[in-house]
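Lab channel / #folding
Pinned by the channel admin:
"Please post every new chain as: sequence first, then the structure tokens as a reply. Keep commentary short and put observations after the output so the thread stays searchable."

First post following the new format, from NK:
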Amino acid sequence: MPVLLREAWSTVVPDLADRHGPLPPLMLALTVVTGLVDAVSYLELGRVFVANMTGNVVFSGFAVAGAPGFSLAASLVALAAFAVGALLGGLIVHHTLTHRGRMLLYALLVETACVLAALIVTGASGHPFTGGVRFALVVLLGLGLGVQNAVSRALAVPDLTTTVLTLTITGILSDSRFAGGGGSRAGRRVLSAAAMMLGAVAGAMAVLHGHPRLPLLIAVAVLAGVTVAAAVLARSRAPWAAPVVRK
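Reply from TO:
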């Protein structure tokens, strides 16, 4: 089996004796969620991201410069909501340091509640999502993805950050043997990029075909499934559950 495919397979069907145990496929599922919710936020909430804060910083600059179609208020609200979510995620991390399964479970409970609340808001409001509804959705989704990002960072599964792909894509080439590196773990990295694209494609297709609530419904379903898995893993005493020691 080619190395790339072997690396991808070991990410989807991991060795449970590995340092990260069953976490990689769960991180991939959360990466799909990122694509889904960012499709909704960018296409339905007015050129704003709820997971990609680099984009919001750039969009804020565009808005300040007077570029049409960009909202400084929406970008700043998204940044603030994400920051609060990251703070909440940090609290979860530092209260569950001894068990990565519990860390993931508590984070998922919060994130699922936020995305479910956003789905309920879309169901209770008219379309398009404007005014207070728009900002409520930005806040709820930003909070949820801030928690996800903070906990994903603490779980430290290599190349599966769930929200940021810049370094992942850079590593595919800069660490490759063509560049003189020892190997780029391209299988896992490509799979991570593909998972986010899958979520983005599914979310965009739903929005563009008149189903703007569907991506959030799918995101809630995915999060519910990952939460159930995390609830089982939270009882594990396997070595992967031990905290990652950062150097």
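NK: The chain has one domain: 3-241.
TO: also worth noting, The radius of gyration is 18 Å.
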